[in-house]
Specification:
- The strands form 2 sheets. A 3-stranded antiparallel beta sheet has the order 1-3-2. The chain has a 3-stranded mixed beta sheet with strand order 5-4-6, with no helix packed on it.
- It has 5 helices and 6 strands.
- It has about 130 residues and is α+β, with helices and mostly antiparallel strands.
- The longest helix is centred in the middle third of the chain and has 13 residues.
């Protein structure tokens, strides 16, 4: 585990205050706007470390890594709004059983997976319908 520096704590706090998944650049910008002298490279490193240690979820969207604070130590999946980025952690027992069965049927062990479901949250769906 990496040592806890003020920069890492600032990134952790900023990430925890974000509504959904956020890019390193957007998080860096919000930190700088709040008066932090933190550098962009430091934000990237801190986010990568937090994701590796299970304190943040990460996903790739349009070739960019996005991050979100998550519940440490729990395997979960996400519902993610395509418009506003609102994210909900979900349990998916059926997916777990399916993934384990497919791995077993094909002679694999210690399989892991990532499932993110993209759609529109209620608010964004209403906005799209009203257009």
């Amino acid at each position: 585990m990496k040592r806890n520096t003020w920069q890492r704590e600032a990134v952790r706090e900023a990430l925890g205050g974000s509504r959904g998944f956020v890019s390193a650049q957007a998080l860096h910008s919000s930190l700088r706007n709040a008066g932090s002298p933190i550098g962009l490279a430091t934000v990237y490193r801190a986010l990568a470390d937090l994701a590796q240690e299970g304190e943040a979820d990460s996903l790739q969207q349009d070739g960019e890594s996005l991050y979100r604070a998550c519940t440490p130590g729990s395997h979960h999946h996400h519902l993610i709004c395509r418009n506003c980025g609102k994210t909900v952690e979900i349990e998916a027992d059926a997916v777990e059983k399916w993934a384990n069965q497919v791995a077993y049927d094909n002679g694999f062990s210690e399989a892991s997976h990532v499932v993110d479901v993209f759609g529109y949250c209620v608010d964004c769906f209403r906005l799209r319908k009203d257009k």
